[in-house]
Amino acid sequence: MNRPTRRRIVLAAVGVLVAAALVWGFLPDPVPVQTAEVRRGPLQVVVEEEGETQVRDRYVVSSPVAAFARRIELEVGDPVAAGQPLVRLEP
What are phi and psi of 17, to 5 degrees? Predict the structure, then answer.
C-alpha cells in the first residue's frame, strides 16, 4: 500500500479549497424580503368584474288590466316599505 506523501496531501487540500471557493462564488445572492407579524383578523375578498346574464327560461307575466308597465326605478338592495308602489301602469 502506498502511503500518501506530504505533496499529495497538500495538493488534495488545495483542490478541496479551490472547489469550495468555486461553489461559494457561484451561489446566488440572497433575495431581500419583507416580513410582518402574523395575526388573526377578518378576511375580505372583493371581486370586481363585469358579468353578463343569460335568461334560460322566459315567463309571461299577465295582468287583469290592459296597461303597460313603466320601467322599475328601484335598484337591487333598495329598501321597500309595505304599501309602496313598485310598478306604475300606463293605460
Answer: -65, -40
